[in-house]
Specification:
This protein is an alpha/beta fold. The protein folds into 2 domains: 92 residues, Rossmann fold, CATH 3.40.50.720; 177 residues, Beta Polymerase, domain 2, CATH 3.30.460. It is built from 7 helices and 16 strands. Strand 1, helix 1 and strand 2 form a beta-alpha-beta unit.
Length: 281
């Protein structure tokens, strides 16, 4: 008999989990802490607030998110759910391998964007999980992750104008800082990220006090500016990628032990967290 379930996480991983079509559950709703998603739908399934779990009739809450630790704490300590009602979805298990044609399309999109940046003199570099996978294996376009590029905030206006000229509005998503991401080095309304097309993700990083700052989920992260004062280059798919200086040392600063995958890793395990924003709405 199929269990009635809600999926906690109306983002990338929740959608991927739904796409695996688990045949042992009936999905009643998506649950998310982001109030902006409430009232929307994903493949006809409503996105609701956390309080709806108690009246949903769900037998199980499937947590599909990088914020597993925070969500489990919220469900058990704040909502009072028993732990045996919570099923943590293995993120790796939800990631389908891209078809070869899709991999090639994403490489072409990446090359197009970086050539546009180069023509306009915009400094960019590969970062985060894309950099991690490149250094580990030489490949980073092999699943349903976004390709992570970064720029400094001094280029944000120029990049915004550039992508608006070269991409259709429906291909672009702009994520602005709001009062849930209050931090001394940026203001409400400042640009945080841009998502483009098939899977390009541009993170904006803010230079201040001789360091660089950005956000991931509910965390403000920081890094020494020295890693971005000039860049290493690597050949990839017939074009060149820019990487932070001394990428192995940089990855250690971000992840600690990074040479092999760490089971159960979440954003809360970043080694360079310097502040935390409110997670719960």
């Amino acid at each position: 008999m199929r269990k009635k379930a809600v999926i906690f996480g109306a983002g990338e991983y929740g959608r991927m989990f739904l796409s695996t079509e688990p045949d042992d559950i009936e999905v009643l709703a998506f649950i998310d802490n982001d109030t902006r998603k409430h009232g929307t739908t994903i493949q006809g399934i409503p996105v609701l607030s956390v309080d709806h779990i108690l009246t949903s009739g769900a037998d199980v809450v499937c947590v599909a998110s990088c914020f597993v630790k925070e969500i489990v704490e919220q469900l058990t300590h704040r909502l009072g759910l028993p732990e045996n009602m919570i099923q943590v979805v293995g993120i790796d298990a939800t990631k389908s391998v891209l078809a070869q044609t899709d991999q090639q399309a994403l490489r072409q999109q990446l090359q197009k964007l970086t050539l546009l940046f180069d023509a306009e003199g915009i400094q960019w570099w590969l970062d985060h999980s894309s950099l991690l996978n490149l250094i580990r294996s030489g490949e980073f376009i092999n699943g349903m992750d976004d390709v992570d590029l970064c720029i400094l905030s001094t280029s944000a206006s120029k990049v915004t104008s550039l992508v608006q000229q070269h991409y259709r509005p429906e291909e672009l998503q702009f994520f602005l800082m709001d009062d849930k991401k209050t931090f001394k080095h940026w203001q409400n309304g400042d640009l945080g990220r841009i998502k483009i097309g098939l899977g390009l993700d541009i993170q904006i990083k803010y230079l201040a006090e001789g360091a660089v700052f950005w956000y991931v989920g509910p965390f403000a992260l920081g890094s020494a500016f020295k890693y971005y004062q000039g860049f290493e280059e690597r050949e990839y798919a017939n074009f060149r990628l820019r990487l932070p200086i001394d990428p192995e040392s940089y990855l250690t600063q971000l992840y600690g032990e990074w040479k092999s995958p760490q089971p159960g890793w979440t954003y809360a395990d970043y080694r360079n967290i310097i502040d935390r924003f409110p997670f719960f709405s």
